[in-house]
Amino acid sequence: MRERLAGFQKRMGKLYIPFVLILLSVFLFLIMFNSVKPKELKIQLYQVANETIRAQRTVEDTAKTEENRLLAAEAVSPVYSYNTDLNDIQTGKIHLLFATVGEVNKLAEEQYQEKLAKEKEAVDSKKKENETATNPAPSVTHLTPEEKNNLFNEKMTTIDDTAKTFIQALPQWAILDLLDAPESTAKQLESATVELVSDVMSEPVKLDELSKKKQEAVARLDYWDLAAKYQRIATLIIDNTVVENNVYNKQATENQREEASANVQPALILQGQVIVQEGHVIDSNAIHQLKLLGLLDNKSSYQMIYGLLLLILAQTSILFYLGKSKKDSLKKQGHEITLYALTMISALLVLKGLSLVQNAGISNVSLLYPAALAPMLLTAFISRRYGIVSNGFLAAFSIFMFKENAGTNFSIVLALFYLLSGMMGTMITRKRIANQFWNTFIWTTLFNALFISSLILYLNMSYFTKETLFMVIFALGGGILSYFLAVVLSPYVEVIFEDNAVLRLMELENPNSPLLKELITKAPGTYHHSLMVANLSANAVGAIGGDSLFARVACYYHDVGKLRHSLFFVENLSSGMENPHDLLTPFESRDIIFGHVSEGIKMLEEANMPQTIIDICAQHHGTTLMKFFYVKAKELDADVKESEFRYPGPKPQTKEAAVISIADSAEAAIRSMSKPTKETIEKFVRQLINGRIIDGQFDECSISIKELKIVEQSICEGLNGTFHSRIEYPKPQEKDQPVGE
Known about the structure:
single chain, mainly alpha, rod-shaped, two-stranded antiparallel ribbon, two-stranded antiparallel sheet, 29 helices
């Protein structure tokens, strides 16, 4: 599968990444299309609905809004203005009436006394003239009612018009009776009417209450012990002074009605709102709403589709830019985009399945979705950035997937839960997921329970119910599924996208694999050497936290190039056999020894071996000096350059390659010693590593001095001596430290 994918990518070249992105976009759209495609409904009024219909978008019902505004305006009570000053004004009119009556009576009495005095003066004068005259009876009389009325009318000309209108409204007989009434009676009548009118007018009186209020005031006249005629006068006064003081304010009422109408919110049909419930009769209001939504005509809304297309386009653009910004090789970018595409398509298919199950009636089952799975895999196999991108878009796609719940709180809460849960999947490190059990398990399960608990409280749901219990169980189940599916799927993802796939390495370490079988048969010494180097390297790599399984398997194949000329390598010579290099010049021997690297690379490539194992074969000697044949060549030709006897490299690029290069040289050198001791082994390994450092062999990898110390200790502990004969290296001059073959 991996080889086919690599071959297809090689044939496509630069078009491969755009091709995968387009293919991904098409697949994602097809998976979600059924959830967002518009539906044309054929339903009739008063028909029983055979499905639940929800609003696919938010629209305003303008007719309903206008109706609500009219109802709000009509509901406003009329505004009345209470005139508190009317009490004083109306009682003031009564006081003015009785004051006028009193003044008229006083004026009439003054006129009477003045006439009486004049008449007495005339009588006294006549009496002086005629002493015998007797005092005649006075002929001056009090003013007649008509005369008093005339005086009263004259007095009326001096008062204001409002009071004049009130007084003129009283009949003439009432005025005459008031003018003729005793002063005490007038005062009693004034007090009674003022008190009764004031009591009524001190409270708001509307027009429709006026008659009732007057009757109540008149009824209280019985408590004042007035004569019948004066009660009639008091009744007239009350009837003319008790007036409406709580007046309808048309302008204020209109203003309040306009304000109430303006405050009415638009009548919205919200996205996700149930328009028709399955099994219910479709009424005229439902038909009206369906028409507004465009579900009864041929102009169904495509906004949901456009939104999904824009979201998919955004994802494609981000992925393209993300690949370009990393500046990796086209091959690596292609692998990353392919893994992302397969992961997203698989995740969307699972999400689609859960949406179908939930729509079938199993509520909250969507919480079982392993939201952290895709981000976890992408973080582990590519980078955290890809994990974050996938997490965000999966949460966004879920809103379209669960469109049936669109507009409801639950759909937003569900997307938020996916986002938070998926974010936990990006918290892992770029190591094998199975090797970080507790860390990953806590990220994906414990925090899921906290997230869903918080969201349950947000939804204002009772926490101790069967429904919420299942929500928590589903959420925990989704986290557990995320972890265990990641563990199960990781080896298979590695096989397709990783050179160091566990399953692939386990297959390659089998001695029955073609190259190892050939190595065992044709170069048993090399095979045994490879096993020894594998043990040394695996232990040392594991000690510094590297991939020990990869180091072991890479060592099995690092010398397969020796199969081409197996007898030219000492470990493959039988006891007593003559060394073929004795028959060759140092330059010919050099080319054969160098050839085991280039031939090994070629053989591994032909066998479709992982590139990382091929790299180990190319790097396990780095650019070290082939000292044995260099010294011999120097003896023949003093002008020989050292560079001519250095391996072509490259130098070790990884920690594993550096460790293998040390272990390979150390095992070969110690094997060539006649009687190696612990001290000699430790001294040689230390000199070997120091020589490699001085020679700059570890300049291109990230191994540290501290890690080299650990490697030195591990290799020294693993070397127990060797029994195979090997040529001892000639002693270099003091300035040259031994660095191995």
